[in-house]
Amino acid sequence: xxxxxxxxxLLAGHxxxxxxxALFTPHRAAGLIPGRIARVDRGRCxxxxxxxxxxxxxxxxADTAPVGDPDPVRCPCTGDWAAVDAEAAPLPALRALLPRxxxxxxxxxxxxxxxxxxxxxxxxxxxxVSLAAEPDLGRVERFLALAWESGAQPLVALTKAxxxxxxxxxxxxxxxxxxxxxxxxxxxxxxxxLDVLAACLGPTTALIGQSGAGKSTLTxxxxxxxxxxxxxxxxxxxxxRHTTTTRELIPLPDGGVLIDTPGLRGVGLYGGAEGISGxxxxxxxxxxxxxxxxxxHGVEPGCAVVAALADGTLAERRWESYRKLQRExxxxxxxxxxxxxxxxxxxxxxxxxxxRDSGVVRRR
Length: 364
Fold this sequence. Notes:
Blueprint: H1 18-23, H2 25-29, E1 33-41, E2 44-51, E3 56-63, E4 81-85, E5 93-97, E6 103-107, E7 115-120, E8 124-130, H3 137-150, E9 153-159, H4 167-176, E10 182-185, H5 194-200, E11 204-209, H6 215-223, E12 248-251, E13 257-260, H7 273-279, H8 281-288, H9 304-311, H10 316-357
Parallel strand pairs: 8-9, 8-11, 9-10, 11-13
Antiparallel strand pairs: 1-2, 1-4, 2-3, 4-5, 6-7, 12-13
């Protein structure tokens, strides 16, 4: 018996693992090949596949319709692993999506109570926060909750450090609202801490943040090439335009991939209870120390939260931010429950109508 180590899969640099290989077994038996979705637009996608004969990677343009779903959260997304029918006509097609290990999901930009997947199968969520202006700590907390909810590890990059008057003071403020998270000050212009940041990235990293946070510039710096267009921020308010208009998977020179995402104006959580607990682990720890399990953190005796607010251990701003996100998440969950109930009613009516139209009459 040979003790030789199996050769790594050609897609290993894009995140392919032995566990994924095992999941793919039935699809391989059906004559399909694995691929990772790099970009999705208008019912088509770019999917990266491997040719074992030539030992090279190829990007195929594929049809996503066979794996489409009425629920946007279940639709193909950048970062998904797919079973690809490369021989389908008139163009290759996705036949199945492999189960996701993680997913960054926010509420849809519309008023409907649906989720939108920003990236799938992510190990690290890199949150870009510009130092060109004073960061909004409440927004940073939202991004952190979104990242923790995904199941991936958050990482904060304070970009444009060369434009900040007191970058270290701001970093300390951000660290206070990011317990358990590495916070780095970086500059794509000077190269400050880019090597440290690159070393902190996981096999698959998703880059999120507001427009104007320098995400595209940071992507180019990490990729070592001009892979993304860059626009200047407005002088009037320091805000940027949408440079990135779609999610795109980009290989990194030292291995691994980066998923660049469009700037997020709104950061709505979608089923974010665990994410809020992760982003506010300090607050959750205080609440757990209260005398009563059902403490409302108001006038109850032995309330650890009230005591922390009184002695300044817990900032009033952070407590209010925590409560706001909890209220928002409760409202979203109630909307989602109502939507699901309405969908069940709609399906029941369709079923009843089909029964009547078929002439089948139930006996009483």
